[in-house]
Amino acid sequence: MAIEVRIPTILRQYTDGQKAVEGTGDTVAELFTDLETRHTGIQARLIDKDSGGELRRFVNVYLNDEDVRFLDGISTKLADGDSITILPAVAGGMV
Predict the structure, then answer these.
(1) Residue 40 to residue 71: CA distance in whole angstroms
(2) 25: region left, alpha or beta (phi > 0 left; psi from -120 to 50 alpha)
(3) What is the pLDDT of residue 11?
(4) Domain spans in the chain, listed from the N-terminal domain onward
(5) Could you tell me which residues are beta bridge partners of residue 85?
(6) Is the confidence at residue 62, as pLDDT, over 90?
(7) What is the CATH number of domain 3-88?
(8) Alpha-carbon distance 21 to 7, whole Å?
(9) d(Cα 32, Cα 57) in Å, to the nearest integer?
(10) Which of 2, 41, 67, 93 has the greatest number of CB atoms lying within 10 Å of its CB?
(11) CA-CA distance, 38 to 19, in Å (whole number)?
(12) Residue 6, SS3 per DSSP
């Protein structure tokens, strides 16, 4: 099962500069574990081990344009041909 994962600029240091990589897994968690086998260090930037293995607070993950936080989080099921987009949260502005 092939899943396309779009990588934001800030995480491309872990994917040798690639904008998109391919991975496998039945869930988002399994996909991130699979990515870690080829792109060492990326999983730690996505998953917060201190919070029981949930997504880091400032990382947004979309499955086919739907935020996985509104689905089943990292337990969200994946299917062949799905697309995952990883986006760091952007904050700022004027006070």
Answers:
(1) 27
(2) left
(3) 94
(4) 3-88
(5) 6, 62
(6) yes
(7) 3.10.20.30
(8) 7
(9) 16
(10) 67
(11) 15
(12) strand
